[in-house]
Amino acid sequence: MAVGTALHPRSAAALGTSLPVPVPRRSASGTGRRNSLSEAAIGRLPVYLRVLQELDRRGVQTVSSVDFALAAGVGPAMLRKDLSSLGSYGTRGVGYPVGSLLASIGPVLGMTQDRRVVIVGVGDLGSALAKYGGFGSRGFQIVALADADPALTGKRLGSLAISPAQELGRVIAETGATIGVNATPAAEAQQVCDALVEAGVTSILNFAPVVLSVPQHVHVRNVDLSAELEILAFHAQRSRPAAVAAEVGR
Amino acid sequence: MAVGTALHPRSAAALGTSLPVPVPRRSASGTGRRNSLSEAAIGRLPVYLRVLQELDRRGVQTVSSVDFALAAGVGPAMLRKDLSSLGSYGTRGVGYPVGSLLASIGPVLGMTQDRRVVIVGVGDLGSALAKYGGFGSRGFQIVALADADPALTGKRLGSLAISPAQELGRVIAETGATIGVNATPAAEAQQVCDALVEAGVTSILNFAPVVLSVPQHVHVRNVDLSAELEILAFHAQRSRPAAVAAEVGR
DNA sequence: CTCTGTGAATATATTCACAGCC
DNA sequence: GGCTGTGAATATATTCACAGAG
């Protein structure tokens, strides 16, 4: 039988970062305005939002799909299709109204909701994330920190105290966090993930290089930094065919 | 004209993190053993590699596509297809030999090459990355740090001194770094990116939430942490349709 | 005439399902 | 019998190209 008790007893795991995994595809229910957004389009919305905010800040009122697309790093046709499936607010012959679009896309990405985040694992990465201003500036509020290491619990980081990981349930209940960031080492990641799920968190951003098992209703996105570098390394190497042929053929 | 001089004069920009962008598709030259790997498959290789290393560590010698796929969080058919396009080392009726597969996939991801990394931007995130053990354990060596802030330059972080960002060219030439990690704030990111490219770096991992412009031969992958949270927020919200309908319809 | 919205065409990716080998 | 390798079928995503609104 080889692999033995495969990593965990639950369902198949979610692999995030848009590495397309056989997600069972939640059939088109939901909020989708016109025809629901494709998964790929959803991944582009945050970029669109950022570009719109930048345009707005510069006082731009209207933008064509060509200029918008250029700034977002996509093709104009795709951008139009994405916006169109959002319900489309463009005017033919003119372009898209920056303000209205912002007001439409923002809520779609939950900007108007409560978005409280708990970070578990306050090592180097966890504390960097806790201090990172980018979350706050985009409407996410870090409301709690937790770590399994007793040496850290009780300490403060900015305005937040670090709670013991064992008390995750209570901390989440008290703070109302709905998003969990898992910045623990690989060995603890599944356990922490389980605790988050147990406490009712349904969105998890996972930095640990492991495939987490979660129930279907929980969304996991993985950020695997080493994997990113490996993918870059792969491409770098394709540019110099000879180098590897020797290695692999050996 | 609206957007005006769109963000940068160079070519269209690369959006990484596998958000599939209209990459001009480098036509199938290169190292690919059998029929070349799809971009999606390439993104899964690091996961496969990690699983194989774990199996190897546990002393597992052979693994079936079903068990392997389960551990990697993908479907067995996809895993077989991916491995098959790598040149396939499986044995029918038996499974895949862990050791040989490792020896095959490793080099494909550049594990046997020199993989020297320079980190630019030694703020919270940059220093967390510099201290992160995960890179080293997967064969990446951080050989240089740089920052534009004069208050930081000259300081040390672990065994490395922080160089002034202005000297990136020299630092890269001296250390032979081929991969650049851009952990600078959004406002500086394009400038740093330009400097990296100028210095001959052709692989960039970008954490700044901006669309970088680079020449065609340079590969960029973006890790946008806020975007990840926004995508989670989007999905979380789809689970509660009513909440947003009110917001958007307003 | 410009620029959006969108069906149709194409390109990619994933899954099925089964032939063929161990 | 069990399991891989892979063509064919399906599902997703992207791009084209043009009708039609302003």
Task: Describe the fold and architecture.
The structure is a homodimer of 250-residue chains. Chain A is an alpha/beta fold. Helices cover 42% and strands 14% of the residues of chain A. Chain A has helices at residues 39-57, 65-72, 76-86, 98-108, 124-131, 133-137, 168-175, 186-198, 225-238, 241-249, and strands at 62-63, 96-97, 116-120, 141-147, 156-157, 160-164, 179-182, 203-206, 219-222. The first copy, chain A, has a 7-stranded mixed sheet with strand order 5-6-4-3-7-8-9, sandwiched between helices. In chain A, a hairpin with a 2-residue loop joins strand 5 (156-157) and strand 6 (160-164). Chains A and B meet through helix 1, strand 1, helix 2, helix 4 and helix 5 of A and helix 1, strand 1, helix 2, helix 4 and helix 5 of B. Chain A binds a DNA duplex (22 and 22 nucleotides) through residues 20, 22, 25, 38-41, 64-66, 75, 77-78, 80-81, 83-84, 88, 90-96.
Keywords:
two-stranded antiparallel sheet; 250 residues; seven-stranded mixed beta sheet; homodimer; alpha/beta; 10 helices; DNA-binding
